[in-house]
Amino acid sequence: MSFQSAEKLVEFGRQHIARGISRSTNLVIQQAKGSYIYDVQGKKFLDFSSGIGVTSLGHCHPKVVKAVQEQAAKLNHGQVNIMFHKPMLDLIGKLKPVMPSTQFDSFFFWNSGAEAVEAAVKLARHATKKQNVIVFQGGFHGRTFGTMSLTTSKTIYSAGFGPLMSGVYVAPYPYCFTCPIHRAVPQKYDRINCCDNPIEQVELLLKQQTAPDETAAMIVEPILGEGGYVVPPKSFFPKLREICTKNNILLICDEVQTGFGRTGKMFATEHFDVMPDIMVMAKGIASGFPLSGIVSNKKLMDTQPAGSMGGTYAGNAVSCAAAIATLEVFEEERILENVNNRSSQLFSLLNSRIKPLLPPHIGLDIRGLGLMVGLEFTGVPRGFVTAVSREAFETHDMIILTTGIYETLRLIPPLTVTADEISGGVEKLSNAVEVVLKKLAKDGNI
Q1: Is CATH 3.90.1150.10 the right assignment for the domain spanning 6-60+334-442?
Q2: CATH fold group of domain 75-332
Q3: Phi and psi (nearest 5°) for 68?
Q4: Distance of CA 295 to the CA centre of its chain
Q5: Where are the alpha helices (DSSP H) in 253-375?
Q6: Which residue from 249, 173, 251 is spatially nearest to 211, judged by alpha carbons?
Q7: Where in this chain does the entry annotate a coiled-coil region (predicted)?
Q8: Is the CB of residue 111 less than 8 Å from the CB of residue 292?
Q9: Are 220 and 202 in contact (CB under 8 A)?
Q10: What secondary structure letter does DSSP report for 59?
Q11: Helix or strand holding residue 254 (H, E)
């Protein structure tokens, strides 16, 4: 079936793609390269979404493309419950040296982040013989039945699908910018000097709602993703680790979005000097190809009987080849060095270009690690960041996403982004912010 215009393609999509899928634009793309995507009419857009952190090496990195092409001609599917296949074994060999701990020596691969989260919960419940799971407010772990029961970033992900999976308890995440204790005594408590209320609430939860001998695991994002790109105080994870160890509770770190260099280290937990018992991986692991996994120590993984884990496409051979190539590019092109250099540039430009645009009554929290950066505005009307994102797209040909329930933009450029692309992207963003502010002022809304 052929179409004569982009408008007809969009209409066809609206008619035949499930309405439950939301999208931030009506862009119809047909190719992409590096930090740019191109629509069916050849128009070029700067992409600071990276497929929500998936195309970590930019779109269609030549080394990854070549690896995929070669693997597809050799073996494109080797079912994991029937046989070993070499790409998976080679990938494990590449992954082991970059793991944050030498104790992470046993892997299970699946397809999506949500599936990997469910695999981690299955492992925790089976290994501990306990049922309950503690999650953290604002966390996003997926949209499958099990993971939407764990997700608390927005009600849209689970509303209307109940009853949800039982045994899930929610503790507050250390979100200092919105913390009432910080707001009451800002000169005393902040990200550096945390009030420790979130830790106290975890301890209270274990006394009032889910006893330690009934709690299998705590699952937490090292940095909130969909919940707002919130970086916790450095003291949070060591204290959480201490609580888990003391109470024989497994600590699961969901590194689906934060992993594979996004924060300037291979895994975000390395920023906090704490090792989880189980780590979840996905998104950037294979530069756009569907692959996810969990990793733990062999003793813990071996508690599960053969046949209790698996999946038709689990650890697909072509995706494994893409992941191997991704790791090779990390080393050959010194990706982490670029992430940290571009991160410093990005934060500097955001502070010098965006903050001066804001009137005194509008606040801005610029936060994040590496190239996982959030900008939360206060004192603006609801829908402000959506308007900024739309203006950036419609006028400046740039893709920027919003996140969380507050007025927050998130910047997720490819890890290969150049200095010129960072400066150009901030220029486009600042222009979009300025236009929206002027419109609001003209209409008397700020």
Answers
A1: yes
A2: Aspartate Aminotransferase; domain 2 (3.40.640)
A3: -65, -45
A4: 17
A5: 298-301, 317-332, 335-353
A6: 249
A7: none
A8: yes
A9: no
A10: B
A11: strand 250-254
- For β-strands 250-254 and 215-220, DSSP reports them as parallel
Cis peptide before 186 (omega within 30 of 0): no
Cβ-based neighbours of 373, under 8 Å, separated by 6 or more: 229, 343, 346, 347, 350, 366, 367, 410, 411, 412
- 192: burial class by Cβ within 10 Å (0-12, 13-18, 19+)? exposed
Positions of E strands within 308-431:
363-369, 372-378, 398-399, 401-403, 408-411
CA angle (65, 343, 368) in 5-degree steps: 105
What strands lie across the sheet with 29-33, from one edge to the other? 29-33, 36-39, 44-47, 398-399
Q: What angle do CA 229, 231, 235 make, to 5 degrees?
A: 160
Neighbour count for residue 415 (Cβ, 10 Å): 28
Reduce the DSSP state of residue 62 to 3 states and report it. Answer: helix
Please report where in the chains the tokens 């699908």 appear, as a residue: 161
Q: Which helix (H) or strand (E) holds 106?
A: strand 106-110
Q: How far apart are CA 190 and CA 233, in angstroms?
A: 8
As to burial, measured by CB atoms within 10 angstroms (0-12 exposed, 13-18 middle, 19+ buried), residue 84 is exposed
The DSSP annotation for 3-20 comes to: -SSHHHHHHHHHHHS-TT
What does the radius of gyration of the chain's CA atoms come to, in whole angstroms? 22
Per DSSP, the three-state class of 373 is strand
pLDDT tens track of the chain, all 446 residues?
555 688 899 999 899 999 998 888 999 999 999 999 999 999 999 999 999 999 999 999 999 999 999 999 999 999 999 999 999 999 999 999 999 999 999 999 999 999 999 999 999 999 999 999 999 999 999 999 999 999 999 999 999 999 999 999 999 999 988 888 888 888 788 888 888 899 999 999 999 999 999 999 999 999 999 999 999 999 999 999 999 999 999 999 999 999 999 999 999 999 999 999 999 999 999 999 999 999 999 999 999 999 999 999 999 999 999 999 999 999 999 999 999 999 999 999 999 999 999 999 999 999 999 999 999 999 999 999 999 999 999 999 999 999 999 999 999 999 999 999 999 999 999 999 999 999 998 888 87
Gap between the Cα atoms of 212 and 186, Å rounded: 34
Kindly list the domain boundaries of the chain, sorted by start residue: 6-60+334-442, 75-332
- Give, as one character, the DSSP assignment of residue 402: E
> Do residues 356 and 326 touch, judged by C-beta distance below 8 A?
no
